[in-house]
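User: For a benchmark we're assembling, each entry needs the component sequences followed by a predicted structure for the full assembly. Here are entry 17's components. Please fill in the structure.
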Amino acid sequence: MGTTLGPSFDLAVTKREILDYCLRSMEYGLNFNTQGNISLRVPGVEDRFLITPTDLEYDRMRAEDIVLVNGDSEVIEGELQPSSEVTVHMAVYRRRADVNAIVHTEPVYSNVWGVVGEPIRGTLVNMLNYSKGDVPIMPFAISNSTEFGERMCDVLGGVNAVVWANHGLLTVGDNLRDAFKTSVAVESAAKVQTFARAITDSPIVLEWDKLGLDHAL
Ligand SMILES: [Zn+2]
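Assistant: Structure for entry 17:
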């Protein structure tokens, strides 16, 4: 039995769901070592968030290792410390009321475009469907502060993904499944862009605003 925060919300079940997506992100090759983190806004409860702990490999993590924090990044429940990027996650939740889940990974092809310094563009319609636009690049900075989070939100704007140059990818969503699917879709498009640009300087890309899509394909 887990802690119950609301009439229909079971913390233990949600921690297992987060762990499941952590393991999937390894399966998809989006992370290595102890990199990456995932968080979730606890539904129906003010100022409570779940986030993966710092410095623990996903395949060694137990659901109960996932930490409950408040919006000031203070631990409410949990034996481990939250991810070192917890303040960045909290900056996003403050700025984007539409965001209920955040996935940070460090996938190779997204990182290629981070070091090139060019946005990941709509080589795949499926990426735009989730990202809702080109994925911008935030210039390198150390990512463990609220200040970094605020600046990242400026770069992110209203889209659902941003690359941190020389570091990794952050995606957001209404729910964890969407945020995770966005990570996978962005990395796929980044890979296509990498190969396409090796062949031509001007691959055919799509623009979200012109697609007229408002639902998942
Ligand atoms: Zn990272």
